[in-house]
Specification:
Elements (H helix, E strand, L loop, with lengths): L3 E4 L4 E6 L6 H9 L4 H7 L5 H15 L8
Antiparallel strand pairs: 1-2
């Protein structure tokens, strides 16, 4: 199923995790800051491992664009 949504409750065009008012970028920032997956899941009981993977997948889609290099 769809694990993320966007809308006014998420700050407009931002993506947040279903059932939890936590932005996808917030999850990525926690992970980038060194937080372990199990600690994030303990701190946010509504999250599941699949939600964290959905954040990674969304980030990958966001950054999946052609890069044109002029040689």
């Amino acid at each position: 199923g769809n694990r993320s949504r966007s809308g006014p409750e998420c700050g407009g065009a931002r993506v947040c995790i279903r059932r939890v008012r936590l932005r996808g970028t917030g999850v990525l920032e926690l992970l980038a800051g060194g937080a372990a997956e199990h600690q994030i899941l303990l701190d946010y009981p509504g999250l599941e491992s699949e939600d964290l993977r959905a954040c990674w997948a969304h980030a990958a889609q966001y950054f999946d664009h052609p890069v044109l290099v002029n040689y």
